[in-house]
Amino acid sequence: MDILPLAGKTAALSLGALPLSYAINHVSALSHPLGLALMSALILGLLFVAIYSLSPGEIYYDPLYAVFTVFSFTSVVDLLIALQEDGYAGSFMEFFTKEGEPYLRTAHGVFICYWDGTVHYLLYLAMAGAIRRRKRYRNLGLYWLGSFVMSVLVFLPGNILGKYSSEIRPAFFLAIPYVLVPCWAGVRVFNQAQAPNCCAPNVVQEEQSKGILRRPVDLALVIYLTLAGFFTLFRGLVVLDCPTDACFVYIYQYEPYLRDPVAYPKVQMLVYMFYVLPFYGLAAYGLIFPGCSWLPDWALVFAGAVGQAQFSHMGASMHVRTPFTYRVPDDAWACFFGSNLLYALGPQLLAFRCLWRPAFFLHPPPGPLAHHKKED
Predict the structure, then answer these.
(1) Which stretches make up the EXPERA domain (predicted)?
(2) What is the pTM of this model?
């Protein structure tokens, strides 16, 4: 209630995407892919100039204000694309999906647009409002960073490697700043000062003196991370064409979407295996041994990443734009939905646990416990 009214200027600018998209959709000159790419770049440049003119104080205080405002504009555009492709809106962005980025018309493209137009949009408004109020937004920023990077890691390689690789248009190269800006933004978010912890030294010592068996929530999370790690490895082997019977049965009877030639599901499973799987191992270590102060931050990053990835993967697996042979079979729907929903919720619970009671992850305070550990 505090932050959202302060993001009113950002929301007003972002909603300008509605009339602008409708007007541009009827400009015949934009039927050429190069003209569309140049017009898109010009609009984003003019939007940045408008933001700088209207809010110089916020940009001087934190340049990410301009980034979040521009990205909130593109989030509204993405939501229009998703609603249009599902038949819930008129021809707002037909010109862009036909001549600019036709791969946004895939099931995966539709769902990343839904996520960007809802979750990312709310995060942009909240973070822009926090900057206007001169408040911290580090946790929101870390969650957004993980979500955004995951979508880029899967979507861009999928466009190049999948069946839409022959339809790369000039507008695709607008993704270059879309990749570089979050790298810079991520560094700034990580470098922000953390909120001061309110844990007394005796509370930290007490928490860190407990073994894993005396912490049932952490024990449950370690068990979850272990099982999720095996599931991650298994699905990675499935998309790598592992010849075992279990992999064959799974890809044909439970998740045939992994065979879809659009390549997004294959890239997604490989990203899980090479990035998320190692994190699960490190997170289990951080839950067992005290003082892993890096875990709360990275738990937020991976919570955003897995949340975005699972939303897009689950939605695309059942969407009508996915060919029928690659959709989830009716008799496997409950198993597919249950396992993938658990896979999505686990990192969210891990991040919540790290923020809820952070004492276990703080650096051990000087005292008898720390001295005892050094002697050991």
Answers:
(1) 61-186, 217-351
(2) 0.90
